[in-house]
Design a protein that fits this description.
With about 325 residues, the chain is mainly alpha-helical. Helices cover about 70% and strands about 0% of the residues. The protein contains 15 helices and two strands. Strand 1 and strand 2 form a beta hairpin.
């Protein structure tokens, strides 16, 4: 009788779960709307402040208001055409904005593609194969992420300096060296994210493909990766955006003006003249945000699935 009573109770609990929820009115949920509106306003205030400064004729921070008094687009024209006037002289300030922007996009795209590829290979090996040191390896990848980036700057600089003496193409002031450093830092957390998602893909699919004569490489490229497309897009997007915003590691490796990324170039652009070049700087910041915004808008349907499905089982 106890088993029968337990079964009846499970059926009743399912029926209660399926019962329609009561219709809530605005009187019942007004505080939720209030909290949501306040959170949105707080989040959008820095963005709107930057937009207002970008379209404001006055380049100083003190002259920036909630709404530009004299709207203009000259800040965008100046930053794109390298014609930003220097308040201290009659010449123009060298910004090289387009060159910095192109450098950043190139590094970000290459880093995102290689991060997805290496992360997928690593996660597939830990998810599908059983070998000695598997658990220790996964734990080590997780522990590496505990140390903040600032603690590794000196070590990274010395490693790249010494390795560059032998292999010049991955030495200081090289894009390939910077990409290699980015790949090493992003491998751990991305491998864990991909690992959790790969565990949700049934191994029976691998066995069926193996029975049909597929090789391990064909199973990886033709079966697993297409099913893991949402999480691959998430990893690539996270890597792309983080590379766009990265400053510390790039400042330790890149040196010459033509090799700078956008964060480094814009930092030098406003160095010691922050209040007098705020308008062009804000305009450049808005332009730099366009690629990430476009990617988020076009790939948003994949983001939720890629971030949540990997948490089903680990």
């Amino acid at each position: 009788m106890s088993a029968l009573a337990a079964a009846v109770e499970r059926v009743r609990s399912r029926e209660r779960a399926r019962a329609p929820r009561p219709n809530l009115t605005i009187k019942d949920t007004w505080w939720r709307h209030l909290v949501g509106i306040v959170a949105v306003l707080v989040s959008l205030f820095p963005v709107w402040f930057t937009v207002s400064a970008a379209f404001n004729r006055d380049n100083s921070i003190s002259g920036t208001s909630f709404w530009p008094a004299h709207p203009t687009t000259q800040n965008f024209t100046q930053i794109l055409t390298n014609t930003v006037p220097d308040p201290a002289s009659t010449s123009y300030v060298e910004s090289h904005f387009l060159r910095w922007f192109a450098n950043t996009l190139l590094i970000a795209v290459i880093t995102a593609v290689l991060t997805v590829l290496l992360g997928a290979l690593t996660a597939y090996a830990f998810s599908r194969f059983r070998f000695k040191g598997r658990r220790i390896g996964m734990t080590f990848l997780l522990l590496v992420q505990m140390f903040p980036q600032l603690l590794m700057v000196v070590a990274i600089y010395l490693i790249v300096l010494n390795v560059g003496g032998i292999f010049h193409f991955i030495g200081l002031n090289s894009y390939s060296g910077l990409v290699v450093v980015y790949l090493g830092g992003a491998l751990g957390v991305n491998a864990w994210l991909l690992y959790g998602f790969f565990n949700t893909i049934p191994t029976e699919l691998d066995e069926s493909a193996r029975v049909d004569g597929a090789t391990p490489a064909q199973i990886f490229w033709g079966v697993v990766l297409p099913l893991a497309l949402p999480v691959l897009i998430v990893v690539g997007l996270i890597s792309f955006v983080s590379t766009l915003n990265e400053f510390v590691i790039a400042s330790a490796i890149l040196r010459t003006q033509g090799h700078l990324t956008l964060p480094l170039g814009m930092h030098q652009f406003i160095d010691q003249q922050y209040g007098q070049r705020w308008g062009p700087f804000a305009a450049g910041s808005l332009i730099a945000a366009v690629p990430a915004a476009v990617l988020f808008m076009s790939l948003q349907k994949w983001l939720v699935g890629g971030l949540t499905q990997g948490a089903v089982k680990g």
